[in-house]
Amino acid sequence: MPKLVSFTRLCQWLCLILLMLLKTKCSDDVEMTFIRSAITKGAVCLDGSPPAYQFDKGFGEGVDKWLIHIQGGGWCESTKSCLVWVNKTNGVGSSTLMQKFNFTGVFSSKQEFNPGFYNWNRVIMRYCDGASFTGDVEKVDPATNLHYRGARIFNAILDELLVKGLNKASSALLTGCSSGGLAAILYCDKFRAKLPAISRVKCVPDAGYFVHVKDISGKYHFEKFFTKIVKLHNSEINLPSSCTSKMKPGLCFYPQFILPNIKTPVFIINSAYDSYQVQNILAPEKADSHDSWSACKLNISNCSPPQLKILQDFRSDFIKTLRSGMGRSIRNSASRGMFINSCYSHCQTGNQINWLGDAASKLDNKAIAEVVSDWFYERNTSQLIDRQHVLPQQC
Ligand SMILES: *[C@@H]1O[C@H](CO)[C@@H](O)[C@H](O)[C@H]1NC(C)=O
Ligand SMILES: *[C@@H]1O[C@H](CO)[C@@H](O)[C@H](O)[C@H]1NC(C)=O
Ligand SMILES: *[C@@H]1O[C@H](CO)[C@@H](O)[C@H](O)[C@H]1NC(C)=O
Ligand SMILES: *[C@@H]1O[C@H](CO)[C@@H](O)[C@H](O)[C@H]1NC(C)=O
C-alpha cells in the first residue's frame, strides 16, 4: 500500500513538472500579427510586404498597461545595401522572412522573470524598414521595388494597437533596442501625444543612445552613414523639428541633439562600452586602415593597452555626451533616468540574464528590471553610472 501512494505521488509530480515545462514553452511563444490592410495605405516593409508585430495580452492588474517595444536591427543607407536587406533571413527588410521572437526578459509573462511588467500588454513592433521607422518616400523605383516607408509602418501598428485598447492605457512604456531604441527616442513625444493626458507615459531606449564623437582616425565616419540614411529614406520630415530647424538632418539622428527638447520622461539603458558603437562609431573599418582593431573588437580581452586607453576615452566622451544630451533636466530624475553599465554588449532588456540575473550587468546591486520599474513608478531616483568598472566588462 505505501508503495502505491508513493507511485501516485510520483505521477503527480511528473505531471506537474510536465505542465510547468509546457507552460514555460507556451508563454514565451507569441504569434505574429500581419497588418495586411496597411498595404493599401502604403505602409509596408522595404520589399512591399505587410508590417507585423507580436502581441501578448495583459492580465490581472496589467490589463490596461502597455509596453510597446520597437525591434532593432541596424540601418540600410543605399539602394545597394537595402537590396541586400530585403533578403536578410532575419526579416529586417521583409515580413515574409520574419521568425517569431521568444518573449523573454522585459517581454516575459512570468512574474519571477519580469516583476515590473509581466502582466502588462506586451508588444514587439517588428522592424523591417531599415531606418528606425522614420522613412516616408511615396515614389517606388520599379527597378528595385524598394519602399522607404518606415514612418507609415510605425503609425499603422500604433493605430491598430490604439483600437485594441492602447487608447485607454493607464500606463504605457515605449521601448526599443538599438535602431529601435533610437526610434523610441525619436517618437517619444509623438507616442505620448496619442495617449490620454491622464495616463503615465514614459520612454526607455535600450542601446539606442548613439553618440556623435570622433572615431579613431579623428573623423566622423558614422555621421556620414546617418546622413545617407536620412537622405535615402526622406526621414527629415519625421525627425523632431526642434532639432531639424537648427541642425543638419543627419545630426538629428543623434539622441544627444534631440533629447534636450523631449518633454516626455526618458530612461536611457546603455553600456558606456556598447559593442555596436565601439565597432561602428569608434573603430569602423573605414577608420582602421591597418586593420589593427579587428581582434580587439571581436573580443575585448585581445585589446592592447593603447587600445584600452582609447576605449576609456570613448567611455568618458560617452558619459559627457550623456550629460549634455540630458540638458538641464539632468537632476530631475523623474524626467530623466539612466542605467549605464560597462558591459561589452548591445541591447540588454530582452535578454533574461541582463534584464534580471547577471551580477555583472547590475549596478548598486540592482538589476536593470528593478531600476526601470522603480523609475517608472517614481519610487526612487535612478541615474546610475558604473564608476567601479572603468574598463569594458564581459557580461
Ligand atoms: C534577393 O532574393 C531574390 C529572390 O530570391 C533574388 O532574385 C535577388 O537577386 C536577391 N537579391 C540580392 C541583392 O541578393
Ligand atoms: C525560442 O525558444 C525555442 C525553445 O526554447 C528555441 O528553440 C529557439 O531557438 C528560440 N528562438 C529564438 C529566436 O531565440
Ligand atoms: C574572449 O577571450 C577570452 C580569453 O581568450 C575567453 O575566455 C572569452 O570566452 C572570450 N570571449 C568571447 C565573447 O568570445
Ligand atoms: C533607492 O536607491 C538607492 C541606491 O540604489 C538605495 O540605497 C535606496 O535604498 C533606494 N530607496 C528606496 C526607497 O528603494
Characterize the structure shown.
There is one protein chain. By secondary structure, this protein is α/β, with parallel strands linked by helices. It has helices spanning 2-28, 79-86, 150-163, 179-186, 188-193, 221-232, 241-244, 255-258, 275-282, 294-298, 305-326, 352-357, 368-376; strands at 32-34, 52-56, 65-70, 121-125, 171-177, 200-206, 266-271, 336-341, 383-385. The chain has one domain (25-385): Alpha/Beta hydrolase fold, catalytic domain (Rossmann fold, 3-Layer(aba) Sandwich), CATH 3.40.50. The chain has a nine-stranded mixed β-sheet. It is globular and about 55 Å long. It starts with a helix and ends in a 10-residue tail after the last strand. The site of one 2-acetamido-2-deoxy-beta-D-glucopyranose has 3 residues, from α2. One of its GO terms (cellular component) is plant-type cell wall. This is Pectin acetylesterase. Keywords: Cell wall, Cell wall biogenesis/degradation, Hydrolase, Secreted, Signal. Its EC number is 3.1.1.-.
Helix content: 25-40%
CATH topology tier name: Rossmann fold
The CATH class designation is Alpha Beta
Major sheet description: 9 strands, mixed
Tell me the β content.
5-15%
Low-pLDDT runs of 5+ residues are: 22-26
Bound molecules: 2-acetamido-2-deoxy-beta-D-glucopyranose
Determine the structural class based on helices, strands and strand pairing.
alpha/beta
Integer tally of domains: 1
Broad shape: globular
N-to-C SSE series?
Answer: HEEEHEHEHHEHHHEHHHEHHE
Distance between the termini: 53 Å
Determine Rg (CA atoms, Å).
22 Å
If helices are DSSP runs of H or I spanning 4 or more residues, what is the number of helices?
13
Mean pLDDT: 92
Q: Architecture, CATH level 2?
A: 3-Layer(aba) Sandwich
* The CATH homology group name: Alpha/Beta hydrolase fold, catalytic domain
